[in-house]
Amino acid sequence: MTISIIPKLGSGIFLHTNKKLSEALQLFATTPSGKQWQNILHQPAADICKQFDLVVTPSAFLNSKFSVTSNMSVAIWCSNYNELSELCSSEVDTTIIFSPSAFSILEAQRCNRKIIILAKGLKRDDKITASHLMESSMGNTNMNGISILKIDLFIGLYAAYDLDAGQAIDFGYVK
Questions:
Q1: Sign of torsion, CA 95 101 106 107?
Q2: Which CATH number fits the domain 114-173, given the four candidates 3.40.190.10, 2.30.30.60, 3.90.1210.10, 3.40.50.300?
Q3: Which DSSP string corresponds to 24-51?
Q4: What pLDDT, in 10s, does the model give residues 11-56?
Q5: Over the chain, what is the mean pLDDT?
Q6: Do 124 and 43 meet the contact criterion of CB atoms below 8 Å apart?
Q7: 142-157 pLDDT, tens digit each
């Protein structure tokens, strides 16, 4: 049986993640406001929650769906990065624990993914050269595209349509 010692948590923003999920530490290196996490917690969620009189969701906290006395300790348990951003921007004065959900992790991976876009426009039947292609991060856009790791597959192909600079390239746009 392993007994984990949990540091006494004060107010601040904490990252909760499984030790095996080191990618979460890379994806969420800082809080949404760019500050360092107060601490990174790897203990089971139930053990962390035992330190507080009340643990609420971000929506319950932001909509004041509960009442507390001044001597109660309250934590906000958050699994959605957008909700965490909203909490950070509203500068709440209580403990926030961000435990990223699988969706939050996948969304962060998607936003950080490097894709191929056109550095300059192409006319139909133009031959694609390395100078036509460049790397871009998907960011918070709905832009889909082919991984930058596949860039060599496009060199020497031809544009199937007129294509604009900045457009993500896909196999359906070439021949």
A1: negative
A2: 3.90.1210.10
A3: HHHHTSS-TTSPPPSEEE-S-HHHHHTT
A4: 789 999 876 666 778 888 889 888 899 888 888 999 999 989 999 9
A5: 84
A6: no
A7: 667 788 888 999 999 9
